[in-house]
UniProtKB/TrEMBL annotation:
Signal peptide: none
Record keywords, A-Z: Amino-acid biosynthesis, Cytoplasm, NADP, Oxidoreductase, Proline biosynthesis
Localisation: Cytoplasm
MF annotations from Gene Ontology: pyrroline-5-carboxylate reductase activity
Pathway(s) where this gene product acts: Amino-acid biosynthesis; L-proline biosynthesis; L-proline from L-glutamate 5-semialdehyde: step 1/1
Family (UniProt): Belongs to the pyrroline-5-carboxylate reductase family.
Species: Cucumis melo var. makuwa (Oriental melon)
Biological process (GO), any one: L-proline biosynthetic process
Protein known as: Pyrroline-5-carboxylate reductase
Residue span(s) of domain Pyrroline-5-carboxylate reductase dimerisation: 169-273
Top EC class of this enzyme: oxidoreductase
Residues engaged in binding NADP(+): I16, G17, A18, G19, K20, M21
Residues annotated as domain Pyrroline-5-carboxylate reductase catalytic N-terminal: 12-107
Binding site for NADPH: N65
Length: 276
């Protein structure tokens, strides 16, 4: 069967699963003007606060997942990895090849998704929690039946909540270890920097504000200047100065190795948790 591109101007988007990630993506899409909320739907089964969250920015909340699939051209599966199989199998009779299916479930492979759905027009995406503030780092991989236009459409959707890259699926465990789990590593770093400020005599509120803005500013310098972070570090590290004294302590503590080990450990754990 020939797969036709989904109309870029008139498609309808549905979310299976109404959690925080789905909310973040839907809100970003609406705020960017990419789609009006009237063309986005989801279903809420038990938690009234989830209904309120989606209706607060105009998204339609339908009675059942079946209704969401029936009314959508693009369906984003945003449910916990351990329930994806049951959800997809229940929806399978409605999942025709005319619908583009997108999964953001961590660790669930395209081959399994395609088998459960009965067709292969799938795109797998690994976003991360900064989607909630429009700063996600997302990666997508196209399934066997997804066409170039499908990838372009998904790139626009997830580009509305941050940046998105395309990569082969074999890299997804490593991506999970880096960008999927990475925000938590940086939260720890911000907290530690703030604690250091308090230890040096700063009020807690000021220390936390300075720590978080410093991390934000440093990340922005890397992305906006295009310079290697090592070069940017060298630029602010004068001979015998305060910065090199601090860096010396970080190097003695093995900071680089700890970050590297964290990414590798999380990637390994993601591999272990993937359905076999």
């Amino acid at each position: 069967m020939e797969v036709l591109p989904i109309s870029i101007d008139a498609y309808r988007l549905g979310f299976i699963g109404a959690g925080k990630m789905a909310e973040s993506i839907a809100k970003g899409i609406v705020q960017s003007g990419l789609l009006p909320p009237s063309r986005i739907s989801t279903a809420v089964h038990s938690n009234p606060s989830r209904r309120i969250a989606f209706e607060s920015f105009g998204v339609r909340v339908l009675p059942k997942n079946d209704n969401v699939v029936e009314e959508s051209d693009v369906v984003i599966l945003s449910v916990k990895p351990q329930v994806v199989k049951n959800v997809v199998l229940k929806l399978r009779p409605l999942l025709s090849g005319k619908k583009l299916l997108v999964s953001v479930a961590a660790g669930v492979k395209l081959k399994d998704l395609q088998d459960w759905a009965g067709h292969n027009r799938f795109v797998r995406v690994m976003p991360n929690t900064p989607a909630a503030v429009g700063e996600a780092a997302s990666v997508m991989s196209l399934g066997e039946g997804a066409i170039k236009e499908d990838g372009q459409l998904v790139a626009k959707l997830f580009g509305s909540v941050g940046k998105i890259w395309e990569a082969e699926e074999k890299y997804f465990d490593a991506i999970t270890g880096l960008s999927g789990s990475g925000p938590a590593y940086i939260f720890l770093a911000i907290e530690a920097l703030a604690d250091g400020g308090v230890a040096a005599g700063l009020p807690r509120e000021l220390a936390m504000g300075l720590a978080s803005q410093t991390v934000l500013g440093a990340a922005s310098m890397v992305t906006k200047t295009g310079k290697h972070p090592g070069q940017l570090k060298d630029d602010v590290t004068s001979p015998g100065g305060t910065t090199i004294a601090g860096i010396h302590e970080l190097e003695k503590g093995g900071l680089r190795g700890m970050f590297m080990n964290a990414v590798v450990a999380a990637a390994k754990r993601g591999q272990e948790l993937s359905p076999k």
